[in-house]
Amino acid sequence: MALVNSHLFLLNNLVIWTIFILAVVCYALLIDLCFLKPRCDNWYQKTSQWSNSIKTMLAVLPLLGLLGTISGLLKTFDHMALDNGFALQELMSGGIAEALFTTQLGLVMVIPGLLMFGYLNRRSTAWMVEQQI
Description:
By secondary structure, this protein is mainly alpha-helical. The chain has one domain (13-124). Helix content is 86%, strand content 0%. The protein has four helices and no strands. Helix 2 packs parallel to helix 4 (89-132) and helix 3 packs antiparallel against helix 4. The longest helix is centred in the C-terminal third of the chain and has 44 residues, at 89-132. It is rod-shaped, with a radius of gyration of 20 Å. The N and C termini lie far apart (59 Å).
Protein backbone atom coordinates (compact mmCIF):
# COMPACT_ATOMS: atom_id res chain seq x y z
CA MET A 1 0.00 0.00 0.00
CA ALA A 2 2.90 2.35 0.71
CA LEU A 3 4.16 1.81 -2.83
CA VAL A 4 0.80 2.88 -4.25
CA ASN A 5 0.61 5.94 -2.00
CA SER A 6 4.10 7.03 -3.00
CA HIS A 7 3.10 7.09 -6.68
CA LEU A 8 -0.29 8.80 -6.40
CA PHE A 9 1.28 12.10 -7.47
CA LEU A 10 1.35 10.69 -11.01
CA LEU A 11 -2.45 10.91 -11.17
CA ASN A 12 -2.21 14.71 -11.03
CA ASN A 13 -0.48 14.80 -14.41
CA LEU A 14 -2.62 15.93 -17.35
CA VAL A 15 -0.33 14.22 -19.86
CA ILE A 16 -0.81 10.83 -18.18
CA TRP A 17 -4.60 11.22 -18.29
CA THR A 18 -4.43 12.30 -21.93
CA ILE A 19 -2.39 9.21 -22.81
CA PHE A 20 -4.88 6.95 -21.02
CA ILE A 21 -7.95 8.54 -22.63
CA LEU A 22 -6.45 8.56 -26.12
CA ALA A 23 -5.37 4.93 -25.75
CA VAL A 24 -8.83 3.87 -24.56
CA VAL A 25 -10.50 5.59 -27.53
CA CYS A 26 -8.02 4.07 -29.96
CA TYR A 27 -8.30 0.58 -28.45
CA ALA A 28 -12.10 0.75 -28.42
CA LEU A 29 -12.10 1.50 -32.15
CA LEU A 30 -9.55 -1.20 -32.89
CA ILE A 31 -11.31 -3.87 -30.83
CA ASP A 32 -14.62 -2.99 -32.47
CA LEU A 33 -13.20 -3.14 -35.99
CA CYS A 34 -10.90 -6.14 -35.43
CA PHE A 35 -13.05 -8.45 -33.37
CA LEU A 36 -16.66 -7.33 -32.92
CA LYS A 37 -17.94 -6.17 -36.32
CA PRO A 38 -18.59 -8.76 -39.02
CA ARG A 39 -16.73 -8.22 -42.27
CA CYS A 40 -19.02 -6.68 -44.87
CA ASP A 41 -19.20 -3.60 -47.09
CA ASN A 42 -20.20 -1.42 -44.15
CA TRP A 43 -17.31 -2.78 -42.06
CA TYR A 44 -14.84 -2.08 -44.88
CA GLN A 45 -16.10 1.50 -45.28
CA LYS A 46 -15.86 2.13 -41.54
CA THR A 47 -12.37 0.62 -41.45
CA SER A 48 -11.27 2.82 -44.36
CA GLN A 49 -12.76 5.92 -42.74
CA TRP A 50 -11.10 5.35 -39.36
CA SER A 51 -7.74 4.06 -40.63
CA ASN A 52 -5.95 7.42 -40.86
CA SER A 53 -7.42 8.64 -37.57
CA ILE A 54 -6.30 5.49 -35.77
CA LYS A 55 -2.80 5.83 -37.24
CA THR A 56 -2.64 9.42 -36.05
CA MET A 57 -3.84 8.56 -32.55
CA LEU A 58 -1.27 5.79 -32.28
CA ALA A 59 1.48 8.13 -33.47
CA VAL A 60 0.51 10.71 -30.85
CA LEU A 61 0.85 8.33 -27.88
CA PRO A 62 4.68 8.21 -27.74
CA LEU A 63 4.82 11.94 -28.51
CA LEU A 64 2.63 12.61 -25.50
CA GLY A 65 5.03 10.47 -23.47
CA LEU A 66 7.86 12.70 -24.66
CA LEU A 67 5.86 15.78 -23.70
CA GLY A 68 5.41 14.31 -20.22
CA THR A 69 9.15 13.71 -20.05
CA ILE A 70 9.86 17.34 -20.82
CA SER A 71 7.28 18.60 -18.32
CA GLY A 72 8.63 16.29 -15.59
CA LEU A 73 12.19 17.45 -16.17
CA LEU A 74 11.08 21.08 -16.24
CA LYS A 75 9.32 20.54 -12.92
CA THR A 76 12.49 19.05 -11.47
CA PHE A 77 14.68 21.92 -12.69
CA ASP A 78 12.11 24.44 -11.47
CA HIS A 79 12.23 22.95 -7.97
CA MET A 80 16.01 23.01 -8.08
CA ALA A 81 16.03 26.67 -9.12
CA LEU A 82 13.59 27.66 -6.40
CA ASP A 83 15.67 25.93 -3.73
CA ASN A 84 18.98 27.29 -5.12
CA GLY A 85 20.09 23.86 -6.26
CA PHE A 86 19.56 22.26 -2.86
CA ALA A 87 16.17 20.69 -3.56
CA LEU A 88 15.04 17.86 -1.41
CA GLN A 89 15.68 14.45 -2.82
CA GLU A 90 11.94 13.65 -2.84
CA LEU A 91 11.15 16.66 -5.04
CA MET A 92 13.84 15.82 -7.54
CA SER A 93 13.10 12.12 -7.70
CA GLY A 94 9.36 12.82 -8.06
CA GLY A 95 9.91 14.97 -11.15
CA ILE A 96 12.32 12.49 -12.67
CA ALA A 97 9.95 9.59 -11.90
CA GLU A 98 7.14 11.50 -13.59
CA ALA A 99 9.34 12.14 -16.62
CA LEU A 100 10.34 8.51 -17.00
CA PHE A 101 6.85 7.16 -16.28
CA THR A 102 5.20 9.25 -19.00
CA THR A 103 7.78 8.11 -21.53
CA GLN A 104 7.26 4.49 -20.58
CA LEU A 105 3.48 4.85 -20.58
CA GLY A 106 3.41 6.40 -24.06
CA LEU A 107 5.58 3.63 -25.47
CA VAL A 108 3.79 0.79 -23.70
CA MET A 109 0.35 2.02 -24.77
CA VAL A 110 1.27 2.25 -28.46
CA ILE A 111 2.64 -1.30 -28.90
CA PRO A 112 -0.65 -3.26 -28.58
CA GLY A 113 -2.36 -0.63 -30.72
CA LEU A 114 0.19 -1.05 -33.49
CA LEU A 115 -0.23 -4.82 -33.39
CA MET A 116 -4.02 -4.54 -33.61
CA PHE A 117 -3.76 -1.95 -36.36
CA GLY A 118 -1.52 -4.28 -38.38
CA TYR A 119 -4.05 -7.08 -37.86
CA LEU A 120 -6.87 -4.78 -38.98
CA ASN A 121 -4.96 -3.84 -42.13
CA ARG A 122 -4.29 -7.51 -42.98
CA ARG A 123 -7.94 -8.35 -42.35
CA SER A 124 -9.10 -5.46 -44.51
CA THR A 125 -6.75 -6.40 -47.35
CA ALA A 126 -7.84 -10.04 -47.18
CA TRP A 127 -11.49 -8.99 -47.34
CA MET A 128 -10.81 -6.87 -50.44
CA VAL A 129 -9.04 -9.80 -52.12
CA GLU A 130 -11.99 -12.09 -51.31
CA GLN A 131 -14.42 -9.59 -52.84
CA GLN A 132 -12.49 -9.39 -56.10
CA ILE A 133 -12.41 -13.15 -56.63
